[in-house]
Amino acid sequence: MSKLTKLKIGEFSKMMQVTVKTLRHYEQKGLLFPCEVDEWTGYRYYNVEQMQRLGTIRGLQRQGFTLEEIKELLEDGAQIPSIDQLTQKIEETERQLQLLMERRSQLLKWVDSQKQIKKMGKFSIQALPEIIVASHREVISNYAALGQLCVETIGPEMHRLGCKCTEPGYCFTIEHNKEYRPTDIDIEYCEQVEEMGTDNDIIQFKRFAAVPKALCMKHIGPYERFHESFTEAFAYMEEQGYKLAGPLRTSYIDGVWNQEDPEQWLSIIQIPIEA
User: 172, 111, 86: which is closest to 136 by C-alpha?
Assistant: First the structure.
């Protein structure tokens, strides 16, 4: 193709296998401009230089460089990153790889957990790993107030603090009352996060030790019926010869945030046990 050859944006798009929308996006980002824009028709034309520049952009994207990083690099007149820039990208990639491996491990554990629950029905025996949580402790009027507390107070504050929740998400509550109370329930809500943060009046960060063995039981329905599941769970523990070995947790899978019908709410009761 000679220097006199000019391609319209559609022709350039087809030849370079990139959408017109992407080309316009690159132009808006200051990455790739047409060699010429007809002042009367508004037609955009591209030539070999744009082909080469587009190849550079796409190659850098494949190596994990952001559009902002690529723009900065090209504005400096470089076609390839420096050794320092490549080293930084390698370190960033290794961190991302570690996070992906951890996510994969968590997902595999989640799959195993679901298989166990499906196989055993309501009950399964699982190990609970060590976790970091963002927690909030408050005395609430009744169990129904928990959903509102999460939506209106805890969730927004965690978002403001920039908390990064794990995938899949894991949240649970611990009750601190010494005896049953239908009202004024002293409850602590915990949600697993990736790292410790700075405590404030609303959110505190804690590390929970691993639980070697826990009896996990599905509870389907409103929270006011937890007592039915606790009765069934402890009866199962007696039958199997298990003893309580720590404070129990109630993990919430489906609730007011994604199910209007309380009869469809799904919770998992987790009871640390030992033989």
Answer: 172
**Per-residue DSSP letters for 134-181?**
EEEEEEESSTTHHHHHIIIIIHHHHHHHT--B-SS--EEEEE--SS--
Could you identify the residue written with the tokens 């060699």? 35
Question: Do the Cβ atoms of 266 and 253 come closer than 8 Å?
Answer: yes
- Six token digits for residue 55: 């190849």
d(CA 221, CA 262): 6
pTM of the model: 0.49
Distance from the first to the final alpha carbon of the chain: 79
Which DSSP letter does residue 229 get? H
The helices-and-strands tally (H runs, E runs) of the chain is 8, 12
Q: Which pLDDT tens digit goes with each residue over 170-185?
A: 888 888 888 777 788 8
Query: What residue has token string 């798009």?
Result: 13
**Six-digit token string for 36:** 């010429």
Distance CA 93, CA 100 (A): 10
**CA dist., res. 91 & res. 83, Å (int):** 12
What is the DSSP secondary structure assignment for residue 224, as one 8-state letter? G
Placement of tokens 């490549």 in the chain: 86
Structure tokens belonging to residue 253: 């899978």
